[in-house]
Design brief:
Layout: H1 10-19, E1 26-31, H2 36-44, E2 48-53, E3 59-61, E4 70-72, E5 84-94, E6 101-111, E7 127-136, H3 137-144, H4 149-160, E8 164-168, E9 174-178, E10 183-186, H5 199-213, H6 218-235, H7 242-246, E11 258-262, H8 268-283, E12 287-289, E13 304-308, H9 314-324, E14 330-333, E15 348-350, H10 353-368
Parallel strand pairs: 1-2, 5-6, 6-7, 7-8, 11-12, 11-13, 13-14, 14-15
Antiparallel strand pairs: 3-4, 8-9, 9-10
Helix pairs in contact: 1-5, 3-4, 5-6
């Protein structure tokens, strides 16, 4: 698992991403006295800061980048602070745990960042000549009460007066809906590694830069944002080189896919990793079969195989070899560098849990589409 310890809320991460590509960036945020080193680092990147004090820091702890974070203090115990007041030509507004932001903008991008009772942009008095709302499918459903994405996007435009709605769909990419009724599918792009924490912040930041600041049309701005996320996933950096972005490969294939998950369950640690992998793949839209966790499960029509290479049984190795003989794509998660690889002829081998999940989902989608 990757080590990551940084003072980066959504706003700070977005500001850093934009500042690497734009010289005029201002961040309005809350900060505690213990956040001063992080604020100094942002100033060193040329970011102007407008700070409202809060009594203590807010920490997000992840067991791995796909896990649900542990938040400290617990959200119910975070004291609400006075709202920020922000005006500008191009403004990106995030939802907050500790407060709110009242925005007045020519073009505004709003990312509510929660499916729990997401508030409309104008509910706190915010105004914009043109508004784009960026959110995922679950947030869209809860914001509108409508399950079907096309209908929900139309309802959100009607309710919030948005000119643009961008709906993120994970490995399926995103859909950009415009007030004219036109919609565009934006693919997700492959990366050599996948660091998931902060990808939504980077997407919203780069979409805001290109659409709100530079005036790029919405679908093109979303495509540039998606490409930027791919580079961020691979590097955790914000240097979005246009030449590299132009060479990225889109994630192709139909939604979903069937995955066979192989690994050991003899120890608590082995079982935990298997359970986490099964859950993560299902969250990515995969149909997962795991003989070691589900008695009698043996998926002979899998679109891809994920192997957790840690103490594989002879039965697992036999099933893997049979599957390989039928040319099913094989991804191996091999975390321990001091142990031999049990499956030397894998199509992809990685030592990173999150990367293994995405490589498997991408492989399953591609195989399903053949």
């Amino acid at each position: 698992m990757p080590f990551w310890d940084a003072t980066f809320g959504s706003g700070a991460r977005a500001a850093a991403a934009v500042a690497a590509n734009c010289s005029d960036v201002e961040l309005h945020t809350y900060a505690s006295p213990s956040d001063q080193l992080a604020l100094a680092a942002l100033r060193n990147q040329g970011i102007r800061l407008s700070i409202t004090s809060r009594p203590s820091p807010i920490a997000f702890a992840y067991f791995h980048p796909l896990s649900v974070p542990y938040i400290q203090p617990a959200p119910a115990h975070i004291k609400r602070q006075p709202s920020l007041n922000v005006s500008g030509e191009a403004v990106l507004r995030f939802g907050f745990l500790e407060g709110d932001a009242v925005v007045k903008a020519n073009r505004a991008v709003y990312d509510p960042q929660t499916w729990r009772n997401p508030q409309p942009f104008a509910a706190n008095g915010s105004t914009a000549d043109e508004l784009a709302v960026v959110l995922n499918e679950l947030e869209l459903q809860h914001a509108t009460g409508v399950a079907e994405p096309d209908e929900a996007a139309a309802e959100l435009m009607k309710k919030q007066g948005a000119a643009i709605v961008v709906v993120k769909g994970g490995t399926r990419g995103a859909i950009v809906y415009e007030r004219s009724g036109h919609s565009s599918h934006i693919p997700a792009y492959r990366s050599s590694r996948v660091f998931k924490i902060g990808t939504g912040d980077v997407f919203s930041a780069m979409f805001a830069l290109h659409w709100a600041q530079e005036g790029v049309e919405a679908a093109k701005a979303a495509d540039l944002a998606s490409r930027s996320v791919s580079l961020y996933c691979a590097t955790r950096n914000f240097g979005f080189d246009r030449a590299l972005m132009s060479r990225l490969l889109p994630v192709s294939g139909a939604a979903g896919g069937s995955v066979s998950l192989e690994g050991a369950t003899e120890t608590l640690g082995q079982r935990f990793v298997m359970e986490e992998a099964r859950f993560a793949l299902r969250e990515l839209g995969m149909d997962v079969h795991c003989p070691e966790l589900e008695f009698g499960s043996n998926n002979t029509s899998a679109s891809a195989i994920l192997v957790i290479d840690d103490g594989l049984s002879l039965e697992s190795l036999s099933r893997i070899q049979v599957a390989k003989a039928t040319a099913i794509p094989l991804v191996t998660l091999h975390e321990r560098a001091d142990t031999p690889n049990s499956v030397a002829d894998s199509d992809w081998i990685t030592d990173d849990f999150t990367t293994a999940m995405y490589l498997t989902a991408w492989a399953a989608k591609s195989k399903k589409n053949r």
